[in-house]
Amino acid sequence: xxxxxxxxxxxIFIFPLAGILHIIVFVNAVRHNNESTAFxxxxxxxxxxxxxxxxxxxxxxxxxxxxxxxxxxxxxxGSVLLAAVVGGxxxxxxxGFGAFIGTVTAPLLWLVATVLIWQKTAExxxxxxxxxxxxxxxxxxxxxxLTGLKEARCPECGTQFTLDQLLAAQPSRTxxxxxx
Length: 180
Description:
This protein is elongated. Helix content is 67%, strand content 0%. It starts with a helix and ends with a helix. By secondary structure, the chain is mostly helical. It has helices at residues 3-12, 14-30, 35-58, 66-90, 95-117, 122-131, 163-168, 175-179. Helix 3 (35-58) packs parallel to helix 5 and helix 4 runs antiparallel to helix 5 (95-117). It has eight helices and no strands.
């Protein structure tokens, strides 16, 4: 099994594990606090658990840059703020329900944000292919590996090129490579 498949399978377990942990923490916290406070405590524990689990699981697969790090932290702050608004609106129905909805929304929003933030860019894909040691041709628009295709159209993004345009746009090609 590849590491990527293993990570994807382990990613699936984040929700049932978080749910079980939420129930355990909530049941123990509600003994000493009111329902809303117990939901907030359980939610805070779940946020920390989800962030830790997700980062440990995917940190080696992500090409970390300063920009990605800042965006990931910003996504965490933004997710908590947006979840507080959603929880506040839901608290109009019931304060415990609002606390539950707000604390569940925050990690879900952060997970979605990290999926978008941590995606490889076209440049990163092209660099990875270039460093793989094989002679590859990549789409200059999206970085998709075009090696072996019979036409100069990217099946990933649909952009069409002439062969000259495609070869000239390759990051690993020097003018001498293009003349041969």
